[in-house]
Known about the structure:
Layout: H1 2-45, H2 50-78, H3 80-104, H4 107-135, H5 140-167, H6 176-198, H7 214-221, H8 224-252, H9 261-286, H10 291-311, H11 314-328, H12 331-339, H13 347-356, H14 360-375, H15 377-380, H16 382-403
Amino acid sequence: MHTASSSHARAEMVTRLFRRSIGIFFMGGFVTALVGLLVPRLTLIDRLDYTRAAFVQFAFHSSYLLFALPITMLLVRTGYMRAIAAGLAVMALACVALGGAAWIGSYPLLLAALLALSTGITFLQIAANVVQPLVETEGGGAARLTLLQGFNSIGTVLGPLLGAGLLLYAGALGRLPLALPFLVCAVVLAALCIVFWRARDLLAGYPAPRRLPLRQLGRVLVEPRLAWGSVAMFGYVGAEVTIGSLLANYLALPTILASDPASAGRLVSLYWAGAMLGRFAGAFGLARIAPARLLAGVATGAALLVAIATQTQGAAGAAALLAVGLCNAIMYPTIFALALPEDRGAAAYASMVLCMAVVGGAVVPLATGALADRFGLATALGLPLLCYLGIAAFALMIALSFAKR
Length: 405
């Protein structure tokens, strides 16, 4: 009877955690998609060049490299639920600052607020991705985490659909519409923060995150599969963010669709919708195809689609670049899984290293923006193409290593 009661209590706790997590994964995707729309806003309406506009993504993704280690150390001291609540609080305050920066038109304040926003998201990336496998030791955590990533994708689809009309608005109301989406997000994130703070002891019955000695941490960092996996993660996030940020600009080109900014921004939702649908298709494919082989296939496919977009005009080029989202779908979880070292006891710190590699979302868009200013946007897309080829090389390396066993 006691065992049955304990199992019921545990199942109820897992359900409560999952329901709360839906909100943070959805909002993470929604806010990230809104940030992506700031680049076409700054270039198409405010008339900044690509390089300066790309500093939006540089500021937004720099925190993964700067703060992943101190955030991991704080998580080890406070626990997962308190770390998630802290991340949500930082995100809410950052969204208020973003709304203020958008309203008054302060570019430096905008960059500072984006850095703060991504710091909050870094809390969630490191903590929220671990708690589901933690409470589902029988293996159900992976399925729940995949489902939660689906809600993240829903957020990235709805972000451009609901936000493009405001963020890419250039009418009589001035800059007020630009601030509204972020102020609404601040309210929702503050509510989620309260929910997680009230449930801060929900995981009291589970072991706290394990501290790793510095010597052992060094051994984790030099694991070849983790090192090369981090390079692949750098390239993946860099390529995905670059295309997502510059896609509206590409669609607005006279040689492609000649769309107005708001319409081009809404079409970006198709890019993220491809990633959402691809996750369901990818889950089916991963059950039948070795992950490394499937990753090599979709990375090669993404490179081919970007190549088509750089060499083709009109609807064909637009369709090719939009379809890259479908190829992106399985890359993050698959690279993550293939890069983890065999010592699963070091998984939390390996996760930290992979999160630091997300700084690719800062570097690659900035470099692509500089190339676009010099050589044109279509030519600059060759840099994301190289990133996808690097991911394919990593996948083939892993596939060959398994074949030799």
